[in-house]
Amino acid sequence: MKKIQKINRRKFLQYSAFGAVAVSFPGITNSMSSNWKGTATADFHPDVEIELNMRAVKIPILDGPQTLVWKITGDVLSGPKDTVVNLVDNYLAPILNFRKGQKVRIFLRNYLPAQSILHWHGLHVPAKMDGNPMYAIDQGETFVYEFEILNRAGTYFYHSHTHGVTAKQVYSGLAGMLIVRDREEQALGLPTGEYDLPLVLQDRSFDQQNQLHYSNHMMQRMRGFLGEQIFVNGRPDFVMPVASTAYRFRVLNGSNSRIYKLGWGRSFPITVIGTDGGLLEKPVKVPYLMVAPGERYDIWVDFSGRKADDQITLKSLPFEGGSMMGMMGGMGRMGGMGGMGMGGMMGRRGGMGGRMGMGMMGGSLPLGGDYPLMRFKITKQVSQKAVLPSKLSTINKFREQDADNVGNARRITLSMRHMSALLNGRSYRMHDIRADEIMPLNSKQLISFNNGYYGGHGMSMPHPMHMHGEQFQIIERKVNPRFESTYETVSQGLVSQGWQDTVLVMPGEEVSIVKPFNDFTGIFMYHCHNLEHEDMGMMRDLLVK
Ligand code: C2O
Ligand code: CU
Ligand code: CU
C-alpha cells in the first residue's frame, strides 16, 4: 500500500519535470500540468529566494541530555536578510517575514529520514504550491515553491502536511510562524520591532531521557494528543521580559490538539486586534479568548503603569466540552459536576499527573483545565505611551446573500464513530473527489460545519475546522439547546468579526461561513486541525475548477 503510493508519486515527479500530466483521474488533469516542477522556473522572477532545510538534530531544551527534534533551518539566498529568522537551540522552525506582493521562491530540502512536505497555512497560493501530501518529498529531494504573497498583513503558519504523519512531524518540530506585512498596516503605527512578538503555544511531553514522547493510540487518536507541559515559543516555564508599554503579541496555537482559553489571572479583558487573516476592523475586547489548533490571534497588551518586577500570568481558563465528558454529547453537566467537568475533576485529583496520565488525559494539564501558560515580567520602565487606533482596517463584510449558493449551503457534517473521525461520513483518500467537493472557480460558497447541531448520535468533540486557500468569514453560529451550558463556557471568547482560515466548531454547534474560491484551480484541502483527527482521516480534498 505504502509502496504503491510511493511509486505513483515518483512517477508523478518524473513526468511533471517534463511538464507532462502525471496522474490521470478525471477532472483535475489541468491543475496538475505545467508550472510545478522540481526545479526553479525561468519565467518566475523572485523578489526573495530562500532555502529551508529539514534535519533531525539534537538541541538543548531541558536540563540534562539534549533532545532529538526535526528542525527546519533556513538561509536567504537573495532578497531581504530578515526574511528568515532562525531560532537557535529551539525546535521551532524559523520565523519567515514576507511582504504583500513579494514573489517568493523557496527551496525545501529534505534531509530527514522520512518523507515530508510543508504547507503554508492561511496563504492563498496555487494548488501545486500548497503542500498537499501528494507532493511529499523523500530524503535527499528538494521541492521548489514559487508563489506571490497575495495575503493581507497578518500572522500565518507553516508546517508539515505529510500523509498520515502530520501530527508526529509537527510535534517533532516541523512548524513555524510566517508573518506578512503590508503598507496599510504599517501606516497604523502599531508596535513594531521588539514590541511585536510571537507567542507560539504548544504542549509537549518528555521521557526520562529528555526525548519527546508522542503516542497515538486509540485514546489519543479519538481525543487528540495532549502534552504534559506547556511550551511558549519553544520554551517550558516561559517568562517573557517586557517593558512598561504596549505590545502586539502574535498568538499562534501550534499544538496538536490542545485548545486554549486565554485569560489573565486577574479579571481584565483581552484586546484582540487581528485574526487568522489579518487585522480586524476595530479592536475587540473579550473576557477571554478561545484559541484552537491552527488559529492565530493578534492581541494588544499594554503594560504601561506596571512597576518594575511586576509579573503577569497568562492562563488557560477552565471550559467544558473538550473533555471525555464533553465527548459523550450533551452530558457535560451530568451528575452535579456542572461548571467543573472532567477537566476540573482530574486536576483536583492530581493522581493522573504522572507518567500514567501522559498523553492520555493530558497529565496534570487536562483539556479545559485551569493552568498557567506563561508569565510576563516587567524589566524595563519606559515612558512612551502607545495609542491603540480605534480603526484598524476595512473588511468587506460578507452576508449570506453574497454566496453563489445562497439557500443551498454546502453542509459538512462532522462525526466521530466506530473509532474514526469523518467529514460527511467520509475518510481521507488521496484522489477521491466527490461531486459536492467541487467548487466553481471565482465563486463564493456558503458552507456550514455541523457538529451535532441537528442531533444524531456518536461522540461530540470540538473540531477546529480548517480550509486551505483563501480566508473566509463566519456568517452565523448556532448551538443546539442541549449543549448550551457547555457552550456558555466558551462562547464569549469566540471572535467572529474577521478573516479566518480555521474555525472552532464546538459540540452541538453549526457554524456557517462564506468562503471565496478565486484565482487558482486545483486541489485544496479541508480538515480538522486537531492533528490526530486529521491523520485519522478527518480530512478531504476539494477541487476548484
Ligand atoms: Cu495547518 Cu491543512 O493545515
Ligand atoms: Cu492550511
Ligand atoms: Cu476534530
Short overview:
By secondary structure, the protein is mainly beta. The model is unreliable at 1-37 and 324-360 (pLDDT under 50).
Provide an overview of this structure.
The chain starts with a helix and ends with a strand. The chain is mainly beta and 545 residues long. Strand 16 (270-275) and strand 17 (278-286) form a beta hairpin. 11% of the residues lie in helices and 37% in strands. Mean pLDDT is 87; it is low at 1-37 and 324-360. One copper (II) ion binds next to loops.
Percentage of residues in helical conformation: 10-25%
- The total count of strands amounts to 32
- Can you list the strand order of the major beta sheet? 12-11-10-14-19-16-17
**What is the averaged pLDDT score?**
87
Low-confidence stretches: 1-37, 324-360
What are the SSEs and their pairings?
Blueprint: H1 2-17, H2 29-32, E1 48-59, E2 67-78, E3 84-85, E4 95-99, E5 103-110, E6 118-121, E7 142-148, E8 154-160, H3 166-172, E9 175-181, H4 183-186, E10 196-204, H5 218-223, E11 229-232, E12 235-236, E13 239-243, E14 246-253, E15 260-264, E16 270-275, E17 278-286, E18 289-291, E19 296-302, E20 311-316, H6 324-327, H7 341-349, E21 371-380, E22 410-417, E23 420-423, E24 438-439, E25 443-451, E26 463-467, E27 472-479, H8 484-487, E28 499-500, E29 502-505, E30 509-517, E31 522-528, H9 531-536, E32 539-544
Parallel strand pairs: 1-5, 4-9, 10-14, 13-21, 22-25, 24-32
Antiparallel strand pairs: 1-2, 3-4, 5-7, 6-8, 8-9, 10-11, 11-12, 14-19, 15-18, 15-20, 16-17, 16-19, 20-21, 22-23, 25-30, 26-29, 26-31, 27-28, 27-30, 31-32
The structure holds CU-O-CU linkage and copper (II) ion (2 copies).
